[in-house]
Design brief:
Helix content is about 45%, strand content about 20%. The protein has helices at about 5-25, 45-60, 75-80, 95-105, 140-150, 165-175, 190-200, 210-220, 265-280, 280-290, 300-320; strands spanning about 30-35, 65, 90-95, 115-130, 155-160, 185, 205-210, 220-225, 250-260, 295.
Length: about 325
């Protein structure tokens, strides 16, 4: 026999379910904001604009990309973590602010509990690019030059901040090749960092292929090695670091869509379904590959597991390289 208390509990549960369903049925009613925690022109920004344009078509509302850079991506990430979990503010998250920066220094958000992963969108290799005036011709001559200059404490590299993918890639490369410690010169974004490498103010950097592919093709920088396991189809002349004498070397960046913790599962499902349709579009895959990335996709749970694995992997590199906050 059902008592009055059980009936009240059932009624409350049903009312909440109806209210949630009503919210999901109306979603989205207005434009969405996709926060990119880096300046325009970089890898994350390029991926965000590719996805936002097509996601808008699928959900019937504009998706506005907002660049909110600083602190290695932590400022933008924190702004989303503290946003209303209503599905109207999303994060185009990346390896830096979600799996590296939190292992280097304290951040005002928790990468594993303050966000709801929705979908891993793209993975992209990184490439060692050097100033064209640097007296090197290939990766091995670069390593020998770097060792000599670093021993004299006069060699440096550009990055987009302490604990970012560009920083960790350089340190992972240094540890692998036996180069002495080098000076990290942090910039506010990938574009200004690459500009200074091109200008000769900084000798080299590990940049995402998304950001540097145009300059590589234009010949304004030297591309000496790529961090993927295979050569890039549109740049077959660039050898992998693994094939250049360092078997097993692999490192890369990634981008994915996340929402603030507390976002209703029904809204997450709507976004996940729309993003799956976007990712299944051959034109999207082609556009992402053309800018230097590989399309990813998958489920929300797979993305969550991926983030955890990235935190473990990058945390080990941070420890081995003794990377600490400034």
């Amino acid at each position: 026999m059902v008592n009055a208390r059980s009936l009240r509990a059932l009624a409350i549960a049903l009312s909440l379910l109806c209210a949630t369903s009503a919210v999901a049925a109306k979603y989205p009613e207005r434009p969405l904001k996709l926060v990119v925690p880096y300046p325009p022109g970089g890898a994350s920004d390029g991926i965000a604009r590719q996805v936002a344009q097509r996601l808008a078509v699928k959900i019937g509302q504009p998706v506005v990309v907002e660049n909110k850079s600083g602190a290695g991506g932590a400022i933008g990430a924190d702004s989303v973590a503290k946003s209303s979990p209503d599905g109207y503010t999303l994060l185009l998250g990346s390896a830096s602010e979600l799996s590296i920066v939190p292992t280097v220094r304290a951040v005002p958000y928790n990468p594993t509990t303050d966000f709801v992963p929705i979908m891993l969108v793209a993975k992209f290799p990184m490439v060692l690019v050097a100033n064209t005036g640097l007296p090197v011709t290939d990766l091995q001559s670069f390593i020998q030059h770097a060792k000599k200059e670093a021993e004299a404490n006069r060699f440096e590299y550009a990055s987009i901040g302490v604990g970012t993918t560009t920083h960790i890639a350089a340190e992972y490369f240094r540890l692998t090749t036996g180069i002495p410690p080098m000076n990290n010169i942090p910039y506010k974004g990938g574009s200004p960092a690459l500009q200074d490498v091109m200008a000769g103010h900084t000798p080299f950097m590990f940049d995402t292929l998304v950001s540097s592919i145009g300059q590589i093709k234009a010949g304004t920088v030297k591309a000496l090695g790529i961090t993927s396991t295979e050569r890039w189809e549109s740049l077959p002349e660039i050898p992998t670091i693994a094939e250049s004498g360092y078997p097993g070397f692999e490192f890369g960046g990634w981008s994915g869509i996340l929402a603030p913790a507390g976002t209703k599962p029904e809204i997450v499902e709507i976004l996940s379904t729309a993003l799956t349709e976007v990712m299944n579009d051959p034109a999207v895959e082609q556009s992402i590959v053309q800018v230097g990335a590989n399309m990813a996709g998958g489920t929300a749970n797979e993305f969550k597991s991926f983030i955890l694995s990235e935190i473990d992997k990058n945390g080990l590199i941070v420890k081995q390289a003794n990377i600490k906050a400034d």
